[in-house]
Design a protein that fits this description.
This protein is of the alpha+beta class and 205 residues long. Helices cover 24% and strands 31% of the residues. The chain is built from 3 helices and 10 strands, in the order E-E-E-E-H-E-E-E-E-H-E-E-H. Helix 2 packs antiparallel against helix 3.
Length: 205
C-alpha cells in the first residue's frame, strides 16, 4: 500500500479590487511568489495570530500596498474563492473584496512589484495566473455588470472552488447571486454556465 500524499498548508488571504474614475483596475505585477512575475489585484494573507477578520485584512493590505486608508463600509465582500493545491504548494481560501466607488494612487514600484492601472479590456493580454484568466476574472466581470452599469448598489456575490491538483484544472461555482429569481439574473447566470461549460475541459499543465 502506497503512502498517502503529503498534506499541503492551508492559507487564508484577500484580494482587493480597486478602480479609478475611468474604471481602470489597480494591479500589482508581482516580484515575489505566489504569482511571481504575474499581475493580480493587491492583497495578502490574513494575520490569524492577531485574530484579524477578512475585512480588516483587506483594509490593512490596501493601506500597506497602496497607501489608501478606506473605511470598512467601502469594502464589499463580492466573492469567495477556494483553490486546492495551487501551484502544487498549498491550498488557499481567498476573500475577494470590491472597493465601492473610485480611488486614486500614483503608479509606482513597491517592494511587492509594480503597481499600475489597467483598462478592463487589457487584462486578458497581461501575464495572469491561469486560475484568474480562465475563472476568476470572467466571474468578476459577470457579477459586477449591474453594479458597473449603475443598476445595483454593489456587485453580486459568487463562491467558486478550483481544483488545481490534477493534470486538468476543474472548478465549480458553489453559489451565485445571479442564480436567483428574475429575468436579468437568469440571463446573467446563463452566461456563467456557458463560460463554465466551454472551459470545463481546458488543461492548465
Amino acid at each position: 500500500m502506497s503512502d498517502p500524499a503529503p498534506s499541503l498548508p492551508y492559507k487564508i488571504a484577500c484580494l482587493c479590487d480597486l478602480r479609478d474614475q475611468q474604471g481602470r483596475v489597480l494591479l500589482l505585477h508581482r516580484v515575489k511568489p505566489p504569482n511571481f512575475d504575474l499581475c493580480s489585484p493587491i492583497g495578502g494573507k490574513l494575520d490569524m495570530h492577531l485574530g484579524e477578520s477578512p475585512t480588516e485584512n483587506a483594509k490593512r493590505e490596501i493601506m500597506e500596498e497602496a497607501g489608501i486608508d478606506l473605511p470598512l463600509s467601502r469594502l464589499a465582500l463580492a466573492g469567495m474563492i477556494s483553490e486546492k493545491a495551487f501551484e502544487g504548494r498549498g491550498h488557499w481560501l481567498i476573500f475577494y473584496y470590491r472597493v465601492l466607488g473610485s480611488v486614486w494612487v500614483e503608479p509606482q514600484d513597491t517592494r511587492e512589484g509594480r503597481l499600475d492601472w489597467h483598462r478592463p479590456e487589457e487584462i486578458e493580454k497581461l501575464p495572469l495566473p491561469e486560475t484568474d484568466r480562465r475563472i476568476i476574472w470572467p466571474l468578476i466581470r459577470t457579477h459586477a455588470a449591474d453594479y458597473e452599469a449603475g443598476k445595483a448598489p454593489r456587485p453580486a456575490f459568487f463562491s467558486v472552488h478550483i481544483d488545481c491538483s490534477g493534470p486538468t484544472m476543474t472548478w465549480i461555482v458553489d453559489q451565485s447571486e445571479l442564480a436567483g429569481p428574475g429575468a436579468a439574473a437568469g440571463l446573467a447566470w446563463d452566461k456563467v454556465e456557458s463560460m463554465l461549460a466551454a472551459q470545463a475541459k481546458s488543461t492548465v499543465r
